[in-house]
Amino acid sequence: MAKVSVVLTSYNHDKFIGQAIDSVLNQTYSDWELIVVDDVSPDDSWAVIESYNDPRIIKIRNDRTRRYIYNINRAIQSQSTGEYIAIHHSDDAWALEKLEKQVAVLDSNPHIGAVFTHVQCIDESNQALSIDWFNQPNKSRTAWLRALFFNENRLCHPSVLVRRSAYEQADLYKCAHAQIDDAELWTRLLKKSDIHVIQEKLTLHRIFSDQSNASGDRPDRRARLKLEWHLQKQHYVDLPQADILEIFPEAAKWVTPQGANNEFLVAMVAIHAGPCPGTRLFGIELLYELMTCAETQEQIETLHGFNYLDFIGLTGKEDFFGEGSGPLQPPVTAITGWRGLVSKALRKIGIL
How far apart are CA 206 and CA 264, in angstroms? Predict the structure, then answer.
């Protein structure tokens, strides 16, 4: 039984998967097992995987394409034995001391559920890109939750090492997500434990000039991205009031001497501070649930002086489903910020 289980998902990256596997084999930390799951790649990826004979490598080839989140979940549940689990992708690579430094953090900090690293973005030719989106300072658990609520994910998935117990507490990935599958999990994990970001570029994250990454700027992905961020907000509904006020200090204005309804606080923050229509729509939907329940409607009118007439007034302020929009005009947000930085960097080096 290895201490670290590395789950490497493979799909159609025969030019890069050897580099990904080698970066695990050459780690300065050696107590690991490598589970490689190939999603029926149509190229020569499986032949590259089969060429490795290290007994620590477990090779799995799917019977049909199932997408990488399904593959990660299955590997964690059915194949992995480690106390810690690292996520790796077939087009990325690691610095040689990555696992050693991450294991040291988790070993000495039992309150930390996951440890990430800074990232060096690279192109198809292993050339460095000037993209620092993921290179963030360490923040409190509630500061990370605030960023995620406002659709900003600056935690790099293939940089993470997660305690098995943190996965068990937060549950695994949701296969119904395709764009923010990792951010949705970070939201659940951060509700229960702290995280840490090593301030060194120990992960090489590849960005393709043709936008073929899972986070690439394409119409279908933009549509899913907006919807999935909207759905992710449900994880904030059951937060304790202390967390709500720490995540959203502006919510204090709706707390009265008599107290506050927690869901009302989250709804008002979403409506009045939400930087995009999806966040504000979540707030409206949450208020609707409160206003259509006799018990909560009475409670909120007593506590906050807000009733169904005020709600009806709010619902006329923005057209969420038509071509036009109301006076709450959304500014440029972090939803497009990551893709914009990628496109700008690629244009700068002449790829776009």
Answer: 42
Q: Are 261 and 304 in contact (CB under 8 A)?
A: yes
Q: Is 311 helix (H, G, I), strand (E, B) or coil?
A: helix
Residue with tokens 């071509």: 323
Please check whether residue 128 is in contact with residue 51, taking contact to mean a CB–CB distance below 8 angstroms.
no
Q: Could you tell me the two tokens for 225?
A: 């991205």
Strand order in the sheet with 84-89: 57-61, 32-38, 4-10, 84-89, 161-163, 112-122, 194-206, 93-94
The residues spanned by each domain of the chain are 4-214, 237-352
pLDDT digits (tens, 9 = 90+) for 285-313: 999 999 999 999 999 999 999 999 999 99
Residue 25 to residue 290: CA distance in whole angstroms: 54
Three-class DSSP labels, 238-299: CCCHHHHHHHCHHHHHHCECCECCHHHHHHHHHHHHCCCHHHHHHHHHHHHHHHCCHHHHHH
pLDDT at 119 over 70: yes
Check residue 159 and report its DSSP letter. Answer: G
Kindly report the CATH class assigned to 4-214: alpha beta
How confident is the model over 209-257, as pLDDT tens digits? 875 555 567 789 999 999 999 999 999 999 999 999 999 999 999 999 9
Distance CA 296, CA 302 (A): 10
